[in-house]
């Protein structure tokens, strides 16, 4: 009735489910009660009334997204005066999604001596500001030179220069066909696109070849998203096509391949996408389809590939030099040059 002792804040529904499932393995041994709070359509596990009823029975560890937790706090369903440990996971994504005001409102309601742990895939100025606000004399641990936007060296990352959408579609089918022909126990593949429209189109293209292809984006219902993730986790040969809504924090075991059908606008996000494979010491492969529209990102991509000890295509080097020259010209003219 007094609220949780441990609060875990995450930016997405998928992460709430993943983390609560992992914590659930320890409930009997530790004799603790775990509850979730996240948004979603009525009728599923994201049903507000169901979640509220569970929280009101008493909770030791609460895994929540900021929006739904704020609703519960305002309605008097939950209190945070007992929170002794607060975890802010995927802090950079939390900021990107505009959750800073909600995080602040939540943090001010915890105990004055609450210990806070913050995890972030990147170390931008905004994330540093968040750390200064909520952490007191913190210890900073940097893993895998994360501050340098360097891709995992356990992942063989290949950048492929593409001239058209048709070429991308053909190469995607070719890569998946080759992977499945190798006879591996697991050929599970994550394909990333930037928009809902492209996710749907890529799914349609691939479903003409294989039935176990699924899509996730913000326009899907919560039930659809949960079903697709469940199928992807359980089928070692499934393909999941997704926007970045699914790229952060998710831990998919047995994921040998990631394909960036479209490159994101930020190099850090590309590193995060690639990081879905090659986890926990395992090896993985990643392919990134680079087209002319990605030229402004060429220099950063080149550095990212070089830092990971991978080979850089000569065409990518050309685009990097061309983009650098275009940027100088725009600056000289007083024009804005950005992605």
TrEMBL record:
The keyword rRNA-binding does not apply. InterPro entries: DEAD/DEAH_box_helicase_dom, DEAD/DEAH_RhlB, Helicase_ATP-bd, Helicase_C-like, P-loop_NTPase. Residues 1-141 form the Helicase ATP-binding domain. Gene3D superfamilies: P-loop containing nucleotide triphosphate hydrolases. GO terms for molecular function: ATP binding; hydrolase activity; nucleic acid binding; RNA helicase activity. Residues 171-320 form the Helicase C-terminal domain. CDD domains: DEADc, SF2_C_DEAD. It comes from the Eukaryota. Its EC number is 3.6.4.13. Pfam families: DEAD (PF00270), Helicase_C (PF00271). Keywords: ATP-binding, Helicase, Hydrolase, Nucleotide-binding. It is an enzyme of class 3 (hydrolase). PANTHER family: ATP-DEPENDENT RNA HELICASE DBP3. This is RNA helicase. The lineage of its organism: Eukaryota, Discoba, Euglenozoa, Euglenida, Spirocuta.
């Amino acid at each position: 009735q007094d609220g949780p002792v441990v609060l875990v804040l995450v930016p997405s529904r998928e992460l709430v489910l993943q983390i609560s499932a992992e914590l659930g393995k320890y409930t009997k041994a530790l004799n603790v009660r775990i509850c979730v709070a996240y948004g979603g359509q009525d009728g599923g596990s994201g049903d507000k009334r169901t979640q509220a009823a569970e929280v009101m029975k008493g909770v030791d560890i609460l895994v929540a997204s900021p929006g739904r937790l704020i609703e519960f706090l305002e309605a008097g369903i939950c209190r945070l005066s007992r929170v002794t440990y607060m975890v802010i996971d995927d802090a950079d994504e939390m900021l990107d999604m505009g959750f800073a005001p909600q995080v602040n409102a939540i943090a001010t309601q915890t105990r004055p001596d609450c210990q806070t742990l913050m995890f972030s895939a990147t170390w931008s100025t905004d994330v540093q500001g968040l750390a200064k606000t909520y952490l007191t004399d913190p210890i900073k641990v940097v893993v895998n030179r994360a501050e340098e936007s360097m891709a995992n060296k356990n992942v063989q990352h290949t950048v492929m220069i593409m001239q058209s959408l048709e070429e991308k579609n053909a190469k995607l089918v070719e890569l998946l066909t080759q992977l499945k022909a190798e006879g591996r126990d697991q050929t599970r593949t994550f394909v990333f696109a930037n928009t809902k429209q492209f996710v749907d189109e890529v799914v349609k293209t691939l479903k003409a070849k294989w039935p176990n292809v699924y899509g996730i984006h913000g326009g899907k219902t919560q039930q659809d998203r949960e079903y697709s993730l469940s199928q992807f986790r359980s089928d070692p040969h499934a393909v999941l096509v997704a926007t970045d809504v699914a790229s952060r924090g998710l831990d998919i075991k047995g994921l040998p391949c990631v394909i960036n059908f479209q490159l994101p606008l930020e190099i850090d996000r590309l590193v995060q996408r690639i990081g879905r494979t090659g986890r926990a010491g395992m090896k993985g492969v990643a392919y990134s389809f680079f087209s002319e529209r990605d030229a402004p990102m060429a220099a950063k991509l080149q550095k990212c590939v070089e830092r990971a000890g991978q080979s850089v295509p000569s065409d990518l080097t050309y685009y990097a030099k061309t983009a650098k020259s275009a940027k100088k010209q725009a600056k000289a003219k007083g024009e804005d040059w950005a992605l």
